[in-house]
Specification:
about 450 residues; ten-stranded mixed beta sheet; three-stranded antiparallel beta sheet; about 15% strand; globular; binds iron/sulfur cluster
Length: about 450
């Protein structure tokens, strides 16, 4: 079920981005007529009246051709409207068939799908995919295949054990001074390797993402003075309407012991037109506010995404990237290096490279751990240090992120530590009286 367009009737299961039961003045989507009225009354009168900044986004050539072919009725204004993009997402087999040349495997997998992690691709993001090639990198991350239904040993629906670390519904308190706040189950696109595949795209069970849940989570944070860092995630928090996100950030900022707020989002990459000037103006009220942007492949670094990242950076939001290492998609230095360089050029610090979590049906995405180490080794020393992310495994069962590094400590010789550099040359570093390296093989 698509939650944006078909909200369930019970408020207990309505996603927070659609209905805010307790928030004054934020209830319900306004009717078309009231929007028109408001726009009319806000319209500048006279030549000297200040003009509203227009939401212009540059458009890549491939995307323009895609739009002309598959959405010829869409105006430029509609195409650049994030709500239009969400309303026109590609979700059904019939819609996929109209755009992609599906393989039998894809067709069968899409037909079989029920429950959470539905198919959902914004028209903009679809425009970056190869419509004829099922092995296209971005396409593989968003159109299901039969392997998604194969569970292998060690996989689990909740491999990180988040459901067991819930301090309140939707609030994971694992580390002493910080919490993960799951704000919504809605995403603009659904990644087939999603760690939260059990709960995104279909609210249910302990996650209903109602304002009642938000309030419970906020009450917990208020009561726990040791919490200094809140990460808003989901689902994707940037799919929440501006007013509601404003409300949530305002409530968090009002808590004195919350020093640091972070947002984790894929939206700037897959729905860049969501990064409106109105949004960035609102976000900048809540500094220090940081953002982790989910990116996968250099193909995503389009003029549109570049503009979105620039708007966020210009709003003073420090940007870091998160990339999941995916077999046959980005598990090669020839892909990862331009991605990291491209991010740096767009003022995004490559932050985390994740080993893919063992979620149910993800074996076809996972690489050997050695692949991640190989990529880090291919970056470290070979390019700008800022371009080298931390390679981490989020330990199954709730152990948290564990960093992995290629082995640069190769041994010890008396008072010297023996170190290997990026060219495989061994150097000595004087370490009198130490023991570091004595155990190295
Ligand atoms: S955007 Fe994030 S939360 Fe949503 S499906 Fe992708 S990985 Fe999961």
């Amino acid at each position: 079920m698509d939650m944006l367009e078909e909200p369930p009737s019970s408020s207990a299961t309505v996603p927070i981005d659609l209905i805010s039961q307790n928030l004054p003045d934020l209830n319900r989507q306004p009717s078309r007529r009231s929007v028109a009225r408001r726009q009319d009354s806000a319209r500048p009168r006279g030549a000297d009246a200040p003009r509203q900044p227009r939401e212009r986004f540059p458009t890549g050539e491939e995307t323009r051709a895609f739009r002309r072919k598959f959405f010829p009725e869409a105006t430029t204004a509609e195409w650049n409207d994030w709500r239009w993009q969400l309303r026109n997402r590609i979700k059904s087999l019939a819609h996929l068939e109209r755009i992609f040349q599906l393989s039998d495997d894809e067709r069968e997998a899409v037909s079989r799908h029920t429950g959470s992690l539905p198919v959902g691709i914004t028209p903009y993001y679809a425009s970056l995919m190869n419509l004829a090639d099922p092995m296209d990198a971005l396409r593989r991350t968003h159109i299901p295949v039969g392997q998604e239904y194969v569970k292998v040993q060690g996989e689990a629906d909740d491999p990180l054990g988040e459901d067991h670390d819930l301090a309140a519904p939707g609030l994971v308190h694992r580390y002493p001074d910080r919490v993960l706040f799951l704000t919504t189950g809605f995403c603009s696109t659904y990644c087939r390797y999603c760690t939260r595949s059990r709960m995104v795209g279909e609210a249910g069970g302990i996650y209903d993402f109602s304002t009642r849940q938000w309030d419970q989570a906020l009450a917990y944070i208020e009561a726990h003075t040791e919490i200094r860092d809140v990460l808003l995630s989901g689902g994707d928090p940037l799919t929440i309407a501006d007013e509601k996100l404003d409300y949530l950030l305002g409530r968090l900022r009002a808590i004195k012991h919350v020093e640091f707020i972070r947002l984790g989002s894929k939206v700037p990459t897959v729905l860049p037109m969501r990064i409106t000037r109105k949004l960035t103006k609102m976000l900048r009220k809540y500094h220090p506010l940081w953002m982790s942007i989910h990116v996968t492949h250099p193909k995503e670094l389009t003029p549109e995404a570049t503009e979105a990242y620039a708007r966020l950076a210009d709003a003073g939001i420090p940007l870091g990237s998160q990339t999941v290492l995916l077999q046959g998609i980005n598990d090669d230095i020839s892909i990862m290096k331009p991605l990291m360089h491209g991010l740096l050029m767009r003022r995004v610090k490559p932050y985390y490279l994740y080993q893919c979590d063992p979620i149910t049906g993800s074996a076809h995405f996972r690489t050997p751990v050695s692949k991640g180490l190989e990529i880090i080794e291919g970056l470290r020393g070979h390019t700008t240090g800022y371009a080298v992310p931390h390679f981490v495994i989020d330990a199954p069962g709730g152990g948290g992120k564990i960093p992995l590094l290629p082995n640069y400590l190769v041994g010890r010789d008396g008072d010297d530590v023996l170190l290997r550099n990026f060219e495989n040359k061994v150097y000595r570093y004087g370490d009198p009286g130490g023991t570091t390296g004595a155990e190295a093989k």
